[in-house]
Amino acid sequence: MGKIVLFMHVSLDGFAAGIDGQMDWIHVDQEIFDFGAERIAKTNVALYGRVTFEMMESYWPTAADKPGASKHDKEHAAWYKVAHKVVLSNTLDEAKLSNTTVVAGDDINSLDKLKAETTGEILLFGSPKAAHSLLKENLIDECWLFVNPVLLGAGIPVFKNIRDKNLLKLLNTHVFSSGVVCLNYAFSR
Hints:
The chain is of the alpha/beta class and 189 residues long. The protein is built from 6 helices and 10 strands, in the order ββαβαααββαβαββββ. It has one domain: Dihydrofolate Reductase, subunit A (3-Layer(aba) Sandwich). 29% of the residues lie in helices and 30% in strands.
């Protein structure tokens, strides 16, 4: 049975994005890209909310073809091309998308079925609103939080709509030279 793993950058005060969705505070560099690429390569299913998916679709399908494409762009574009994408959306037309399944945002049964039919992990990339919906239904099994040493003061929280109190079990940590810290937690249920 598969598990849904949240993969998200977070400010030190718990926000996934600024008030208007700003993410210019997120620190990324080759060290973080390499760590993420190694982690992402262990799965072939990506889960997105509609907004994050549209952002990804506007960049990754052609990122490797651009002049001067970075190592990260080439590697992630290759992974993105073959990964099965699942999008939580009530408006996207699946017929117009390649290698993508669209699930109604409130269709918990389809997500339970996806978990049952998937071997390994389903990575939920960013997508704070989608994460909130999944947290409400206790569907996230693990999280990889890239804690950035910045205080936003306000914004879109990583954790919202928690139905039951969850004690998280720390599985792993990694400190990057930039000061970003990756915390890997499992939800205990």
